Amino acid sequence: MKEFLNSEAGKACCDMKGTVVDDQDVLADGAGIGLRKSDTELKDKLNAAIKGIRENGKYAEFNAKYFDFDIFGD
What we know:
Layout: H1 2-6, H2 8-13, H3 24-27, H4 40-56, H5 58-66
């Protein structure tokens, strides 16, 4: 991620705001993104997109191409 943030595209769109403590009770294994609590429209769109690719098979296709385990964690 640091490499992207240092690129021209990264500098134009994003800003690192800090780090998150590696806490299994909070994050478990995996990755996540942060949103403003007030940005419910974006949250709904992201959730709908994830649901859509899982339902139409694109997620499984991508996962099988790049991983030998389910990255979603089911």
